[in-house]
Design brief:
Belongs to the YbaB/EbfC family. The chain is α+β, with helices and mostly antiparallel strands. The protein has a domain of 68 residues: Nucleoid-associated protein YbaB-like domain (Ybab, Chain: A), CATH 3.30.1310.10. It is built from 2 helices and 3 strands, in the order αβββα.
Length: 106
Amino acid sequence: MDFLKMMKQAKQMQEKMGSLQESLAAVEVTGSAGAGLVTVTLSGKGDMKGLKIDPSLAKEDEVEILEDLILAAHTDAKAKAEAMMAEKTQELMSGMGLPAGFKLPF
């Protein structure tokens, strides 16, 4: 295997990963809980961009339920963002022709 060729591919991969991370910052994913009573919108990088709560949950005696639903919706959105990132990364790496299991130094 040509080491210089591999290093060139690694540099190209690093540049493409930088572009991918920039594009993911502009993507938004939405997670929900409680059959849509709570929704959380995150950027592709995991920053919370929005939170929507159905007014029926705004009851003093249901605060714990609301807190749980917010956490569940956030977890749902975060899982979707991570899955999207993993998919895009896999697509990027499959085009590089690197050997199976090869790990780059970045």
